[in-house]
UniProtKB/TrEMBL annotation, chains A, B:
<dbReference type="InterPro" id="IPR002731">
    <property type="entry name" value="ATPase_BadF"/>
</dbReference>
<dbReference type="Pfam" id="PF01869">
    <property type="entry name" value="BcrAD_BadFG"/>
</dbReference>
<dbReference type="InterPro" id="IPR043129">
    <property type="entry name" value="ATPase_NBD"/>
</dbReference>
<dbReference type="InterPro" id="IPR052519">
    <property type="entry name" value="Euk-type_GlcNAc_Kinase"/>
</dbReference>
<feature type="domain" description="ATPase BadF/BadG/BcrA/BcrD type">
    <location>
        <begin position="7"/>
        <end position="301"/>
    </location>
</feature>
<protein>
    <submittedName>
        <fullName>BadF-type ATPase</fullName>
    </submittedName>
</protein>
Length: 327, 327
């Protein structure tokens, strides 16, 4: 019996599902980072193969694989993946955009909008089951306002300004100094000077994109009522709303599907006390948050075989594809 | 006869002047980058020694050296410099902040403000001949709005947005594509997509701070009337004015001394047609632009010996210390 493989390759992990041509789920798998930009071409291709192997029931093979991934679709990466998946019978590899897989993870509709807010941010308009317009996704250096890097940078800037006496004090100061292992007493001028020096050094000693690791501090402090953190989170939410506005057109209402670590951790799951200020990214339109693009990759795999995925089949897929989330 | 050495160590070049205790200039010298952060500790110390050697008349020595430099004053760098300058008789090395040297390059006054807008930005309040308050200077990753990196990043963002159809067209597009050697025809959709892909790849392939090299394109395009470039330059000028405001206090009026590549190339030397929009950094207070901190390093060297530097002596120093500017 031939099967289908659907894979969602991300910068942290790769997720896979094996299913039959009727959409019945036969197995699930997970492995390490499968994005060639994040992990390198060969390690990423190996991660894709490992996730496929974990998902396929022992002794079975698959004829087609759909791989959802972010960024450029390089021929070199495709060749590495094809070579490895050939061992499982795969003769056809289809690469799809992770934004489309994310959208299809939240709805059976063929049109609407998708927004990813992870370390970076990107939004898309979907029409006729394809991406019609993509905005953002230029990376940390050129934009991606509202993403994890941007939030982490705003957090550090707020802390430096507070230590410097340029801006108001914030609970983020102790949080950030603690997270970076900086020992200094901000109650005294000498301690503040030392804290700034250590903080700036620590930030420049790491990869710039590592600032994204500090983003969760903003959500926690905002939830605890810190006004500085709250302003950062509200500004992030507004930036995401602006990004979504950039792809919206009047003749296409929704739905809106959102995903990514920022969405999962903070902006959409803000405590009720903050919800008035935290403009939802969709500005009034119903929003569905999804953990990843795996359900959508399965939807796309079925559609690539010519099968139709209606609401009922979509709901069965969504119920069956539940990978335990990593810690 | 004992002499004094005054040195201004920057990220691009190191400048030196030898003078006697009456402030008579005996020689000038220039060498390569003398900032340990930019060049490394040993190469920077060697550049300092090379500039000193070039400035000292043959066969003469100096007992004291004042070295103006940006950033942290590390003991390791000081030791390397002391060891090398000992060969020229130097028994006392004084490290001063480049902001103070810049200020003293523009005025004999003991109080006022200094602003550096190069790749990054930093401002200071000077009182009693010392730095009383310093704001900014956190580097490209954490701020420095209005500096060369910031301007270069805004230029690339404007070009990407223009190519993407998100923002208005700008003459910067051809300028940036040309500067980065990108071949694509933005008149067609496929050309725009290719241009964005190449542009983003080129930017991430370089050091982030290399974005500063694109800043001069903004000044040139703004001068030629491009509204997008003009907005970038005006925003930079406003950011510099804000930075200066952050150190200003009512009881200390000025003067204001400014320096750095952004000041030299663009914001303050904007053509008359732009001058209405280009708020001068000092917002109404007289501004003196200086090419570097070498005159100020000489002023500081004399003051460290206990000598007074009044307006007349300052003007003589300024007239005598004229290094040819590198191309």
């Amino acid at each position: 019996m031939t099967q289908l493989l659907a894979l969602d390759a991300g910068g942290t992990s790769t997720r896979a599902v094996a299913l039959d041509h009727d959409g019945e789920v036969l197995g699930l798998g997970r492995s390490t980072a499968g994005n060639p930009t994040a992990a390198g071409i060969v390690p990423a291709a190996e991660a894709v193969a490992a996730a496929a192997r974990a998902a396929l029931p022992p002794g079975t093979t698959s004829d087609m694989a759909v791989l959802a991934m972010a960024g450029e679709q390089s021929d070199a990466f495709r060749a590495e993946v094809e070579q490895r998946l050939a061992a499982y019978g795969v003769t056809r590899v289809v690469l799809d955009h992770d934004l489309l897989a994310l959208f299809c993870s939240g709805t059976a509709s063929l049109e609407g909008y998708a927004l990813i807010a992870g370390t970076g941010t990107v939004a898309a308009r979907v029409r006729d089951g394809s991406l019609e317009r993509v905005v953002g996704g230029r990376g940390w250096l050129l934009g991606d306002a509202g993403g994890g890097f941007w939030i982490g940078r705003e957090v550090v800037r707020a802390v430096v300004s507070a230590l410097d006496g340029q801006a108001e004090a914030t609970a983020l100061t102790q949080d950030v100094l603690g997270a970076l292992g900086i020992v200094a007493d901000p109650a005294y001028e000498a301690g503040r000077v030392s804290a700034i020096r250590q903080l700036v050094s620590a930030v420049y000693a790491r990869r710039p994109v590592a600032l994204a690791e500090l983003a969760p501090l903003a959500f926690a402090a905002a939830a605890a009522g810190d006004p500085v953190a709250r302003r950062v989170v509200v500004a992030a939410s507004e930036a995401l709303a602006d990004l979504l506005d950039a792809v919206r057109v009047p003749d296409l209402e929704g739905p809106v599907v959102v995903g990514g670590s920022v969405v999962a951790r903070g902006v959409l799951q803000a405590p009720p006390a903050l919800s008035v200020d935290l403009t939802p990214p969709a500005r009034g339109v119903a929003v569905t948050a999804v953990p990843d693009g795996l359900v959508g990759a399965a939807v796309l795999a079925l559609r690539h075989t010519g099968a139709e995925v209606d609401d009922a089949r979509f709901e069965r897929l969504r119920a069956a594809i539940r990978l335990p989330q990593p810690a």
